[in-house]
Every structure is written in C-alpha cells, then in structure tokens.
Write a structure and sequence with these properties.
This protein has 132 residues and is mainly beta. It is 11% helix and 55% strand. The chain is built from two helices and nine strands. The longest helix has 10 residues. The protein is globular.
Length: 132
C-alpha cells in the first residue's frame, strides 16, 4: 500500500503536493562508511521529516528538514524525493538521497578548519519506510 501511495504521490501535479505535503523516512542503518572507505555494519534507527516550504512544480526548492527529534534546518531539494542538502553547522554539510523505494543514503561531511576540526565524512546506507 505504501508503494502505491509513493507512486501516486510522484504522479500528482506540483500544486497538490506543494505546501503541507511531508515526506517521512523511518530508517535503520545497514552500513556505515568513513571517508577512507572503511565500512562496518550500521547501528540504530534514524528518522527524517522533510516538509516543503517554497518549491516549484517539479519539487525543486526549499524544504525544512528534521533529523530525529532535532531542530529543523533549511534544506535545498532537487525534487520532492531529494536529494536534499543542508548545513546544520558552520563546518558541517549533509545530504540525504532516496536510492530506492525502501533505501536511502545519508552523507555527513565535516569541512575542517585545519585546527582542532579535521576534515572528514561519513556515509550511511539505510533501509527506510517512506511515507508521504
């Protein structure tokens, strides 16, 4: 049923899905990788809520994105299903991309300042229950 809802939602005109339509992902980490390509089994859940704020008919534009119970962040989205990019801190960049009907990729990048904060990245592959 959720797959049908997802496919129908993707086919609707932008005006129907624009304001008020939320994308919710209840995910479980499958694999976690670091910037050196070292991967290990993932651990724990993650929840994402993505709400459109100012988007065009294709879903390109601004969204508010929440991770777990954290504060909302302004994110840029390329479509209603991502990828979404946001910066929760001055030296931190994140991206979330749906990679299939039940999978997503979360990239967390630290830019590094050359001092106490080294540059780095983490990439998490997740399985998710996706609802609109």
């Amino acid at each position: 049923m959720r797959l049908t809802t997802f496919l129908l939602a993707a086919a609707l005109p932008g005006a129907v899905l624009a304001e008020g339509a939320r994308l919710e992902l209840d995910c479980t980490f499958v694999t976690a990788c670091d910037e050196a390509g070292q991967c290990a089994p993932g651990d724990g859940p993650a929840r994402f809520v993505v709400e459109p704020e100012a988007i065009d008919d294709d879903g390109t534009g601004l969204y508010t994105l929440w991770v777990d119970d954290g504060e909302g962040h302004t994110a840029t989205g390329a479509s209603r299903t991502g990828p979404f990019a946001w910066a929760p801190g001055e030296d931190v960049r994140m991206q979330l991309a749906l990679t299939g009907e039940t999978s997503a990729l979360w990239i967390r990048q630290t830019l590094g300042t050359g001092g106490e904060t080294p540059a780095g990245a983490e990439i998490d592959l997740m399985t998710c229950e996706v609802t609109f």
